[in-house]
Amino acid sequence: MKETSSNTVVSSWNEWDPLKHVIVGRASGTMIQAPEPAVQNDWPQQGFPLGSFGRMPEQMEAKANEHLDNFAAILENRGIWVDRPTPLDFSQAVQTPDWEQGSMFGCMPPRDVLLSVGNEILEAPMSFRSRWFEYLCYRPLLEQYYKEDPNFRWESAPKPRLTERTFKDNFWSQWNVLSDEEQWQRTKNSDWIITETEPLFDAADVARFGRDLFVQKSMVTNDAGIEWLRRHYPEHRVHTVSYTEKLPWHIDATLIPLRPGLVLTNPERSPLKKFQNELFEKNGWEIVEAPRSVRTEKMPLCTCSLWLNMNCLVLDPKTICIEAAETPMMELLDKHGFEVIPVPFFEVSPFGGGLHCATADVHREGDLEDYFPKQIEGF
Ligand code: ABU
What we know:
Elements: E1 19-24, E2 31-32, E3 54-55, H1 58-77, E4 81-83, E5 94-95, E6 100-101, H2 110-113, E7 114-117, E8 120-123, H3 139-148, E9 153-156, H4 171-175, H5 180-188, E10 206-209, E11 212-216, H6 223-232, E12 237-241, E13 255-259, E14 262-265, H7 275-282, E15 286-289, E16 313-316, E17 319-323, H8 327-335, E18 339-343, E19 359-364
Parallel strand pairs: 1-4, 8-9, 11-12, 14-15, 17-18
Antiparallel strand pairs: 1-19, 2-3, 5-6, 7-8, 10-11, 13-14, 16-17
Bound molecules: gamma-amino-butanoic acid (ABU).
C-alpha cells in the first residue's frame, strides 16, 4: 500500500458507482465494551457474563485482521485505493462532563461512523457512549483528505450529550421480560432504548440512492436524527423507513442498493409502511429477495444477525464482493449479471459486521442523479 495519495478526491453519491478509494476497518484492540445504558452484553459461555467487559480473544482478533488485510489486498489488486484507520487504546475508560464509560469499542466498522454524501464525509453522532470517540480513529485520514482535496467538505453532526435523558429508564430489564407479542407492539411503535431528546443516527442506517436517502429509524437512529439529516441535505429527499425487525440496528442487512433499478431486500424484514416498496415499483426498480445465509449459527460474541450475507460491497454496477461461503447469494447475483468476488469474512462479524460495515466510501466515480423521478406524496 502506498503511504499517501497526492490526488485524493472525495465524492460518492450512491452505493454502486465505480469504487476508486475506500477505507477498510481494523479489528485491532476491539473490546466487548463496558456496560452502558444502550448496551447489555451477556455471554457467560464465552467468559463475558452480563456486567463484565474486556478485549476480544487474541486469536479471534488475529483471524479477523487477516481477513480484513486480505479484503484490502483484493480491492487494491483491482486498482482501488485503500486507507486504514488508526486504532486507539479501546480498553481505556472515557468521559465527558456528563458521564464516564469503562471502555471504548473498536474501529472495524467505519460504515457506522462515516457517512459519505457527494464531496462530504460526515461524522455521525453515535448513540453508544463506548463509540462517542470512535471518530478519532479516522481523523488522520480526514485531515489528509482535507489537505489534498480542496473541494472536500469535512462535517460532523452535533456531538450528543448521551445523558440519562437520552435513554429510557430500565429499557432492557423491561424488554427482556416482554412477551413476543409485546415486543412486536413496541417495535411497531419504534419504542426502543433511545429517546427523542437529541438527534442521533449511525451512518450505517442510511442507504444512498443518489438524490434519495433511505434512513432507517432504529435502536441507534431517532426521528430527531433523521430530521437533522433532512435539514443538512436540503438537495436530497430523505425517506424514513422501518421494517419488521424487533431490535433494528443499521439498514445494511435489510435494504441493499445494487445498481440503478435493482435493490436487494430481506425477506424476514418487511417494510412497516406499504409505500416504501411502492416507490421502487413506481420508478421501475426490481426488488429481489435475498436468500438465507448458509450459516445457521452466528460466531461467538457476535451482535450482528445472520443476514450479514446481504452485507456486500458493490465495486461497480457489474462487480460485487460477497462473503466467500454464501453460495446462494453468489448464485443470485451471478444470475443478475454480476461478477461476484468471494471474500472470506465470517470471522470478522464479531468485530462489528460484514463487508459493507467494514468499509466507508471515499471516492466513487459518477455524479448526483435522480433515480426516483416519480415520488410518493408525504414519503
Ligand atoms: N451492521 C449491520 C448489522 C445488521 C444486522 O445484524 O442484521
